[in-house]
Amino acid sequence: MPAIETPAEEIHPDVALVEAAKNGDTAAFEQLVRQYENQVFRVAQHITQNREDAEDIAQDVFLKAYQKLHQFQGNSKFSTWLVRIAVNESLMRLRRRKTAKTVSMDQDIQTEDGAIPRDFAEWRPNPEEIYSQSELGDILRKTIQGLPPGFRTVFTLRDIENMSTEETAEALGLSVPAVKSRLLRARLQLRERLSRYFRQQRSEAHT
Fold it and tell me: Which residues, 6+ apart, have CB-to-CB distance to 163 below 8 Å?
């Protein structure tokens, strides 16, 4: 009976680019920058809610990534490693601006109608669908801006950048349960804030 051949594990194209960059190939690193500069900028802008800060952060991220390239061991995706740097730089920028409010991640979610049960945690409509509509996209962006940084960061990576729970946990240095908990709370807060906004709009329309 012939031996069954198992397919070799596919190597991500970034691996070769990273190794080339480590060996001094600047063109290889520039290719990595082109591939991920938009994602890094989006993550920074969602966390800081400031375009100029995001532009500065994106430059800092790639500078630090280049300087610390030897520390990347390939245990995770290169994009996940970059996002982790972007998150750290963004949160440091927020702390320097002293605008981040301290909020306990274990704090119960209370609304004007009392605590929201977990059954309401399902996210509808899909954030990507909302973003395709400019007016609703603007509403969502303003609503996300009101979230505490810890919630906003997790929501950005999971529901906007579509990173997996495991990748998000790795990028943020959190456990998977902690990511799930923060994501749930972020979705609950967004759901309540958006519901309150649309209730207000309907009320004003009928007055």
Answer: 80, 83, 157, 171
C-alpha 147/C-alpha 109 separation (Å) is: 12
Token duo for residue 194: 């958006």
Quote the pTM value: 0.65
DSSP at 110: E
Yes or no: say if 82 and 157 are a contact pair by the CB < 8 Å rule.
Answer: no
49-93 pLDDT tens trace: 888 999 999 999 999 999 899 888 877 889 999 999 999 999 898
For 13-96, the fitting CATH number among 3.20.20.70, 3.40.50.150, 1.10.1740.10, 3.90.1150.10 is 1.10.1740.10
Percent of the chain with pLDDT over 90: 34
115 φ/ψ angles, rounded to the nearest 5 degrees = -70, 145
Q: What is each CA distance from 16 to 12, 23, 28, 74, in whole angstroms?
A: 8, 11, 9, 11
CATH fold for domain 107-198: Arc Repressor Mutant, subunit A (1.10.10)
